[in-house]
């Protein structure tokens, strides 16, 4: 019952209620990892609902916020690194582009899927993406977005630089953003393109499982 | 042969246009003192603070200035107490400034083009400029009462702006920006959008309509098909920026007798490095032939005459002219005689 409650509260984005529900479930003796899995599965539902248009950006944001609040309660009870067990993802909007909401949604959904996210923010130069990889051993995915036709060349430059890095074979490169297409992603040599945040989280899981 | 303005009026009213309206040809976009007293960012300028305290930057390769929302630059630090942070700029301007604007309005041939006051940002945009997009979107859900109060405050300010514009400048159109969605969906659920914004815009657009403004042209280059009933109730006459993703022909069939559509040609279709006239022609002809002439104006979805890459807007302009000449028997000279010279804002 408590796990169902946690699941329901995350789906409904009840950030103020989730911490108490998680604590209650822990007090009942349910394993922390099981509660985490429940919240991850709740975010899968949120992602699907967003993808099929039954919920909108605010609902998705508050669901991710609710999950984050729940994870804060869980963290002391989880094995070290369990909350980001799927690996590290570097994410950023490319140089010259200040759009953040799409990138933030992808970051939240990827984090909610069980990754540790290193968010470089917006207007991120190529060098910063490369340095972030060097500074964070074990990164599994680098995700870059561009929201304008005029910043697509910057996305291309970023992916080209990543492709030239000696560690390229150890990392997957994902791209997205309004003007980006699968064709463009293929052309610039990215490993994956997804059209929305829910698909990005799903694809990230597939990429690390492959 | 109709003037460009008459032709746009016929198009919007579902009357008898004699050719396709060519993008913004019948809309002369004009300033007012508030716009003139705000910092005008040029490409490359960074961290310029406007009258609301919002910091903006204009990177080299983007279409316009953009609010900066690093934590230190977000205006509203605590949404429950937004009144402590939001202080509207004064709308008291000197006669000298009003007179400069009056001269600009007087210089436009009002038989060929609407004299359209330019208003931006709108209420939704102002909220997220002040709060950051992410926080603002959550605030609609988590602090609805405070959000209603903030929107009322912004609406009252816009009404004061409208009063100044109408009483001094007497525009017959308004080009009002407020982006309400991404390419794929509206940001807010339609019921929530209606709850927060219908009354605000009914007041603002109602004021303009009752003070001599014939056309409310609202810009949102996004998906908004799900918001159309509310947009109609707001009093919008022309939705500029309707992207291809809205299925404009379907929107026209459902709502064309209540609102007109200006767009369908997404920037990404034509406005990219290496664009050609053939790209413009293909997009323009497709838009015209799938949407028809009544209640539809083929136009780049960008919120003003111009494009990101040099020449694209002109390329579309030429393509629409060529189509009008070929299908309606006009010459280029005749088209030019009935409109103002092409004006490219950016």
What does this protein look like?
The complex is a heterodimer of chains A (210) and B (346). Chain A has 210 residues and is of the alpha/beta class. Chain A has two domains: 78 residues, Methionine synthase domain (Methyltransferase, Methionine Synthase (B12-binding Domains), Chain A, domain 1); 124 residues, Cobalamin-binding domain (Rossmann fold, 3-Layer(aba) Sandwich). Chain A contains nine helices and five strands; from the N terminus they run H-H-H-H-E-H-E-H-E-H-E-H-E-H. The model of chain A has no long low-confidence stretch (mean pLDDT 92). Chain B has one domain: TIM Barrel (Alpha-Beta Barrel), CATH 3.20.20. Chain B contains 13 helices and ten strands. Chain B has a seven-stranded parallel beta sheet, sandwiched between helices. A three-stranded antiparallel beta sheet of chain B has the order 2-3-4, with no helix packed on it. In chain B, strand 3 and strand 4 form a beta hairpin. In chain B, helix 4 crosses helix 6.
Question: What descriptors fit this protein?
Answer:
heterodimer, A: 210 residues, alpha/beta, Methyltransferase, Methionine Synthase (B12-binding Domains), Chain A, domain 1, Rossmann fold, five-stranded parallel beta sheet, 54% helix, B: 346 residues, TIM Barrel, 13 helices, 43% helix
């Amino acid at each position: 019952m408590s796990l169902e409650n946690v699941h329901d509260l995350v789906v409904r984005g009840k950030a103020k209620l989730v911490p108490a529900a998680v604590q209650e479930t822990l007090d009942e003796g349910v394993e922390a990892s099981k509660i985490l899995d429940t919240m991850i599965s709740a975010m899968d539902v949120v992602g699907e609902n967003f993808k099929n248009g039954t919920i909108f950006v605010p609902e998705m944001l508050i669901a991710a916020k609710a999950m984050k609040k729940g994870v804060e309660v869980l963290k002391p009870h989880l094995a070290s690194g369990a909350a980001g067990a799927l690996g590290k993802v570097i994410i950023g909007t490319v140089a010259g582009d200040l759009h953040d909401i799409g990138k933030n949604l992808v970051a939240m959904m990827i984090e909610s899927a069980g990754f540790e996210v290193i968010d470089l923010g917006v207007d991120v130069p190529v060098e910063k993406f490369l340095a972030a990889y060097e500074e964070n051993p074990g990164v599994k995915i680098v995700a870059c977005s561009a929201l304008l036709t005029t910043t697509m060349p910057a996305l291309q430059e970023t992916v080209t630089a990543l492709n030239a890095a000696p560690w390229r074979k150890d990392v997957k490169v994902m791209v997205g953003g309004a003007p980006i297409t699968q064709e463009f992603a293929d052309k610039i040599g990215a490993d994956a393109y997804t059209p929305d945040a829910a698909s990005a989280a799903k694809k990230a899981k597939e990429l690390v499982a492959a | 042969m109709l003037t460009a303005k008459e032709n746009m009026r016929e198009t919007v009213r579902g009357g008898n246009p004699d050719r396709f309206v060519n993008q913004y040809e019948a809309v002369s976009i004009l300033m007012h003192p508030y716009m003139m007293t705000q910092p005008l960012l040029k490409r490359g300028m960074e961290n310029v603070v406007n009258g609301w305290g919002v910091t903006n930057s204009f990177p080299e390769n983007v279409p316009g200035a953009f609010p900066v929302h690093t934590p230190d630059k977000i205006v509203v630090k605590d949404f429950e107490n937004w009144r402590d942070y939001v202080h509207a700029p004064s709308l008291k301007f000197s006669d000298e400034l009003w007179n400069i604007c009056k001269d600009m309005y007087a210089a436009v041939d009002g038989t060929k083009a609407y004299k359209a006051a330019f208003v931006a940002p709108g209420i939704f945009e102002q909220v997220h400029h002040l709060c950051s997009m992410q926080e603002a979107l959550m605030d609609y859900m988590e602090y609805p009462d405070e959000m209603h109060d903030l929107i009322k405050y912004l609406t009252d300010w816009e009404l004061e702006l409208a009063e100044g514009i109408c009483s001094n400048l007497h525009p017959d159109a308004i080009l009002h920006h407020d982006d309400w969605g991404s390419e794929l969906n509206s940001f807010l659920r339609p019921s929530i959008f209606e709850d927060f914004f219908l009354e605000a815009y009914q007041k603002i657009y109602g004021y303009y309509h009752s003070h001599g403004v014939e056309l409310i042209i609202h810009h949102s280059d996004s998906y908004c098909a799900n918001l159309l009933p509310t947009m109609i109730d707001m009093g919008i006459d022309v939705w500029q920026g309707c992207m291809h993703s809205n299925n404009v022909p379907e929107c026209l069939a459902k709502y064309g007798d209540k609102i007109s559509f200006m767009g369908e040609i997404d920037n990404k279709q034509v406005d990219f490095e290496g664009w050609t006239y053939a790209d413009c022609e293909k997009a323009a002809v497709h838009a015209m032939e799938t949407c028809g002439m009544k209640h539809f104006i083929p136009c780049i979805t960008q919120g003003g005459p111009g494009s990101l890459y040099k020449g694209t807007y002109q390329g579309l302009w030429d393509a629409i002219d060529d189509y009008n000449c070929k299908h309606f028997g006009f010459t280029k000279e005749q088209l030019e005689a009935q409109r103002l010279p092409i004006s490219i804002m950016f």
